[in-house]
Amino acid sequence: MAGSRGTGRKRAATGRGAGKSRRINTREMDLEAALKASAEEAARADKLESVRAKEAKARREARKRVRSEGLHVVTPATLAGEMASATGRFRLYYMRQMGLILEHVVPTWMHVLSPAEVDIARKFVTGLTSPAQRLFVRLYLRKGPWFTLNACMQYSELVLPPPADDGLVDALAVQAAVEAAGAELEDAGFALKDFAGEASVDELIGARSRVELEAFVVEALGAGPSLARSEKRAGLEAMVRREAHARDLLVAHRSQPEWVIRLAPEVTAVFDLCQFLFQLRDARDRDAMTSLTLMAMRQARFAHLPLEPLPTSVPVRGRSAVVMDDDGKARSASGASAARAIFPTRHALDAFMALQASVASVDGAKTMTPDLAALVEASQLWLEAHAGRFARKHSGPPPFALRYTAGWQHARLLTYGTRVLEREGRYRDAVAALRLLLSLNGLCVHRRGEWWERLATDLVHLKRPQEALDAAVAGLAERWVVFGHRFALQKRVASLAKPPLVYSAARLASVRAHFEELAEPSTRTIVGELVGGGAGWSGRNVWAAGPTSDVPGAHVSVEQVALDWYAAKLGYVGRHDEGTLLRLVFVLVLYDALFASVDGVFVTAAQDAPLDTRDAHFYARRADVIEAALEQVSRLGGEELGAHLAVAYAAHEGKCVRGAAWESVSVDEVVGFGRAARGPALASLLRAMAKHRGRALSAR
Known about the structure:
The protein is mostly helical. The strands form three sheets. The protein has a three-stranded antiparallel β-sheet. Strands 4-5-6 form a three-stranded antiparallel β-sheet, with no helix packed on it. β5 (about 320-325) and β6 form a beta hairpin. Mean pLDDT is about 75; it is low at about 1-15, about 160-170, about 180-185 and about 305-335. This is Fanconi-associated nuclease.
């Protein structure tokens, strides 16, 4: 017994000792975690301070650079008159396009353009003769590293010497021709190079056309590459660099001698900047530049940038009136002051442009590469460093002007980075980023619904349902959470608001009171034959057309199968449309509201939409004009509405207005839609679209 008792006491002592040891270990672990968290917090504070210091240094350097560059030697008014007089002589469509850009941008944005940049623009307009100007624009539009002079000869309007019998162009003769026209090559921004001498593979690739590069690849590999059109140039260049035989063919193809020409990079950068400032849309925006080119060819019109003579004064845009000269050129009476609200300093413009390029490079990224991780961390640090500025009600420029700030671009970049974090299952990091984004006031408000929905979803993945429920309820309380995001959050609340996650009955009732309900749609079942799909069909499912189709058995989309069925069974006539027709109808009915007198929403004469199209107050700023147009529409029957839309189509056809895809929707389709929709239903639909920040104007 004694032995047993002793053993028991020993075991008890061992148990007490183990418990004490565990408590000590726990305290040590807690202390270690606290020290680690403190070190991480200190390191993050140092990073934030570094971000602020770098920004302050950049601002000081920008001010120093402005002082060193000196003052402009001409006033905006003098420059505007000088450029209008010179560009009025341009006749070729691409010359008119460039003339329009420079004539409107340089005087309006002189406060952010350096004297050297203004001098480059002036030199193009007034310092070059017509042949040199035409060569200049052709080289700029090509956007290539080098352009062979042989290819220059394809443009009949370029006054260059004819090629020799062997098909080569004498570079000295070209230089003499351009100099004889009144400009030195180097001074005008041109650069000549003889590829008979030293030339890198990249330079040789840049001087070859896409067709020539493809021929090298085919000869080297025995087959042509399968590349999408948008990726073809880059893909071919990569193949030529990779395949030794293709590189040998590239070098062997070089003529002896072969002279090439290009614009100096600093000159190209100035014209890229002017192109962006002309429409406040990215120079890589194909839709924007297509509209501009069509207008220069007199095949399209901007709402307030006419090419034909108009009355002396046309009052538009509130305080910003567009005044017409005798030659019909538009002048913005207060464009410069509105421009200062967008980019008050060159530092603000440079920061925006640099971030815009970074955002474009990460949009659609699938994996967290080191470069993307660095960009995401930099944006997160910047937003944390400036969180106090955006946590309170914004008192600076108008909210819609924030999209042209560095903060807006950082928020976009962090949004794209968060999507990649979620793809990789890094939900804790994604939650931290989303909470930061949601703490900001005024930045990317149109994305807040997406942020709330993803925050709730990520918290569910982390097994934190109570926090997910709280996030969903908080998202529903915000007035700019609309469309699918609101319904997704409602669904999340309905699935989580049950035991053990208990809200009080009163609170749950108040949340449900703000739910938006949709009527249950009717359904029809259509049976078809799937004949193909997947990678071999460009990722699409392909169906066999039914017996009611014009071509039975043909390969069609699933949408066409449905259209054929409705036409055969119910006599309906329709089209597969993902919003194109409805956006055009929105423009036709509310055109006057889009271009109503609202302060600050038009900065340049070439805008195809007001700056606040996706702002929370888009509807409120022009409610009287919108309601007047919708009241008129609501009183119309089917036939009357069709006729009303036909008149509007004829009045505005061809105008460059965002959302109006004239080439995709015919007047007959618009009229047919009006007859089917009828006035009251269409008025309600357009009112909802206008209230939700004018999102009807954008497919994205």
